[in-house]
Amino acid sequence: xxxxxxxxxxxxxxxxxxxxxxxxxxxxxxxxxxxxxxxxxxxxxxxxxxxxxxxxxxxxxxxxxxxxxxxxxxxxxxxxxxxxxxxxxxxxxxxxxxxxxxxxxxxxxxxxxxxxxxxxxxxxxxxxxxxxxxxxxxxxxxxxxxxxxxxxxxxxxxxxxxxxxxxxxxxxxxxxxxxxxxxxxxxxxxxxxxxxxxxxxxxxxxxxxxxxxxxxxxxxxxxxxxxxx
Length: 229
What we know:
Elements: H1 14-19, H2 23-64, H3 70-76, H4 84-98, H5 109-131, H6 134-166, H7 171-226
Helix pairs in contact: 2-6, 2-7, 4-5, 4-7, 5-7, 6-7
C-alpha cells in the first residue's frame, strides 16, 4: 500500500486534511457523516413528536378533569390525534362501549380488570411508539467515538509508515499526518455528543409521559368504577 499523501505543513485547515486523506479515512468520515445526519434527523422528528404529544395530552387532561361524561370527553377530544393519553382513553372508551355495564350502572370487577388490561396494553403501545428511533441515538452515542478512534489509529499508522519510508522524523514531516488522523476522532465526537444529549433528553421526557399514562390509567379506572359512563 502506498504511503498516505501528507498535507503541507502550512496548509492544515480541516477541509484540506479531509480532501487529502486516504481512502480508509474518507470511508470512516463518510460513515460518521451518515450517523450524524440520521441522528440530527431523528432528533428533529422526535422533538416535534414529543412536543405535540405533551401539548395535546395537557389539553386532554384538562378536559378529562372537568368531570364530564366519558362520551362528552370523547367527542370533545376527538381531534387530539397526537396525544398518547387521548389514544389510551379512546381504547378504554371502546372497551366500555363494547362491554357496557348491566343497566348502565357501575362496572363489575371482571369488566374493570378487562378495562385495566386494555388501558395498560394501549399505554405500552404508545410508549413504544414514542421510544421509536431512540435506539439509533444510543447506538450513535456509543459507537461513533470508537469508529472515529479507528480512523485516527489507521491514519497515525499510515503517517508513521510515511515517515519510515521518507526517513524524515521532523515535526514538519509528521504533524500534517497526525492532524489528518485526529480529524476522525473529532468527527466521531461531533456525531456522538448531540446523539447522547438527545437520547438522554428524550429518555427523560419518555419517563415523564410514562408516569402521566400510569396516573391516567388509575384515574380512568377509578372514575368508571363507581359511576355511569
